[in-house]
Each structure stands twice: as C-alpha cells, then as structure tokens.
Amino acid sequence: MTVPHAFICGLSGTHLTDEEKLFVDHAEPWGIILFSRNIQDAEQVRALVDEVRALVGRGDMPVLVDQEGGRIQRFKPPLTEQHPPPAAYAGVYAESAEAGLDAARLGARLIAHELKGLHLNVDCLPLLDLAFEGAHQIIGDRSYGVRPADVSAIARAVCEGLLDGGVLPVVKHMPGHGRALADSHHELPRVTASVAELQRTDFAPFRALNDMPLGMTGHVLYTALDPDHPATLSRVVVQDVIRGFIGFDGVLMSDDLSMKALSGSIGHRAEESFAAGCDIALHCNGDLAEMREVALASPRLDGDAERRCHAALGRLRAPQPFDEEAARATVRSLLPVRVA
Predict the structure, then answer these.
(1) Is the bond into 126 cis (omega within 30 degrees of 0)?
(2) Is 104 strand, coil or helix?
C-alpha cells in the first residue's frame, strides 16, 4: 500500500465523476470531507464513502464532516437527528457541571453513532474557541462558553463521546478564533490581544486538550505573534504556539484553503501551510482544478506528519456498548429547550 499525500479534499456531488475517480486514484489524498452537496440519502452516502476508500485501498481512510449541531450540521433530518448547538450544553453546564458534561458526552456519542452508521470516522468537532462579547457571530453559539476552564471541560466530554463511538474528534480553530471581528470565510480577521492575554484565555482550552488526535488551524492573524501571516501560514504560530506553548502533537490540518481570508493561488496557500508546519492541507469546495493544485503542492506523508497520522488513526476503535434510545432520552431531559 502506497503512502498517501498530505491533503484532504472535498467532492463535487453525490457521486464520483469519472474525473474525480481518476484524481482520487492517482492523487491518493489522506482523506476526504463531505458537505451538504454530497448528501442524498444513507445508502448513497455509504456507497460514496466506500467507493473512495476502495479507490485508495485504505479501509480506515479519514472521512470527515462538520457535524456540530445547531447552525453547522451537514447531515440533517430525517437522515440524522437535528442536534442542539454547542452553546446549549454550556447552558446546562452553567446550572450543573455534572449534568452539562453528561449531556455533552451523550450528545457527541449520538452524533458518533449516526456518523458511524454512514461509514464516516472523523467529526470536525469540538470548537475550543471562546465566546467573546462583540466578536463576529461566525463562532457565536458554536462556542461552549466564555471561561477557558468551562470550554475545556465540556469539549473534553464531547471528545470522549466521539471517541467512544469510534469517531475521531478535531479540535478547532487553533489557536483560537473567538476574538475574531470578521468571518474568515470572507476576509482575514486580525486579533490585537497581547501574547500574555492570549495565553491566559484563547490558547488555554487547546493546551488543556493537547492530547487529542486531530486539530485544525484558524485563518486568523495575531498581530502580537506574526503581523504578516495568519495562523495557518505562520511558522511562528504553528511552531511556537501550537506545537510549543499549547504542546499539541496531533495531526494539524489547515482550515479550508479556499476561504477568502487567504490570498494567492490555492497551490501557493498549500505550500505555505506546509512551510509553516501544518501536516495536512484541507481543501473543501470540490473544485477539481483547485484540488489538482493542492495535490501537486502536497508531499507524501513522511517523518513527524506520517507518525502523527498513524497515531491518530490508531485512536479509532470499535464503538463502545451504547443504548441509543436511553441516551436520546437523557439528553432531552437535560436540555431545557429542544432545538428544532
């Protein structure tokens, strides 16, 4: 079996085109990520995932999705349950830490159960971004709270729920997107807080969960750290903060390279992310021409990146015993308001 290239890509639709089949076969991405455009029904999703894995010859190939609950949930009813936003668990936690952690763990376990049934094995969850007053609402109710200790505790419960269900969590957006005053999908956010303040707040939850297998960068520029490069493309941020102060030694993937916070060609963005120290380039929009650029810029996994990827996949396990209906009833009883 050949070593895959260090990138994750999207797909254009619900079935592989002939060109995509050739691309996946020859470019050998480490993983793929699914969006709403790739989802029709359960049988179709499973067939799509299985076909991609058969093409690359890796049964444990990472297949990712953003299944957070609330606003960001690619799989929707009736295919899956509509899950509450992360902030709902923070509300329970504020009343009772024990109940909040139980709800978060079981909520994530339910998500994992649904994803495993669709043959996925990675969820881009949880966010460790803090909820700052006055910040752009791109994070908003996707955050588990304001205090680093609260966010760390709830997010760890979420990670445990996903891992118990045989799904790898991705902590995001490293080293913190909560202060951003702009949406990085559309423009580059600039954060002017001091290093000491960032270490005390934004970076703290990531440091507390530095043992997680996968992490995703944020396209945020921290003027006190690197006034010229957003985190994804900054060697200072990746090496000194994410690998250094935070102590994260899991697989570090970029956020989507096609987002407008970044400039230059897609291939150049990928090259810069690797130069900064990212292990995996993530490209999401399914544009085949752009995917080819990313593939050309992506090396085969080697060295620390290969070690980290191997270790991450080693965290996959068979789902633990689980009573789905009892878990749903418990989560419903703990959440004061059911989110439609």
Answers:
(1) yes
(2) helix
d(CA 283, CA 12): 12
User: Are the C-beta atoms of 111 and 329 separated by less than 8 Å?
Assistant: no
Residue of 164, 202, 226, 255 with catalytic role: 255
Instruction: Please report which confidence band the pLDDT of residue 336 belongs to, taking 50, 70 and 90 as the band edges.
Output: low
The larger pLDDT score, comparing residue 318 to residue 340, is at 318
pLDDT at 1: 65
What lies within 8 Å, CB to CB, of 221 at 6+ separation is: 188, 189, 190, 191, 227, 229, 230, 231
Measured CA angle at 270 (ends 268, 275), to 5 deg? 95
Structure token digits, residue 269: 């963005």
Condensed to tens digits (0 to 9), the pLDDT of residues 76-109 reads: 999 999 999 999 999 999 999 999 999 999 999 9
* Best CA proximity match to 276, nearest among 247, 238, 222, 244: 238
DSSP state string for 219-259: --EETTT-SSS-GGG-HIIIIIIIIIIS---SEEE-S-TTS
What number does CATH give the domain 5-71+120-126+168-318? 3.20.20.300
Q: Can you give the residue ranges of every domain in the chain?
A: 5-71+120-126+168-318
Identify whether 255 is a catalytic site residue. yes
What's the distance, CA 24 to chain centroid?
21
> How many CB atoms neighbour CB 338 within 10 A?
10
Collapsing DSSP to helix, strand or coil, 31 comes out as: strand
Contact 86, 144 (CB under 8 A): yes
Catalytic residue, chosen from 185, 186, 211, 304, is: 185
Mean pLDDT of all residues in the chain? 95
* C-alpha 208 chain-centroid distance: 17
User: Would residue 229 show up in a list of annotated catalytic residues for this protein?
Assistant: no
CA distance 258 to 173: 16
pLDDT over threshold 90, residue 215: yes
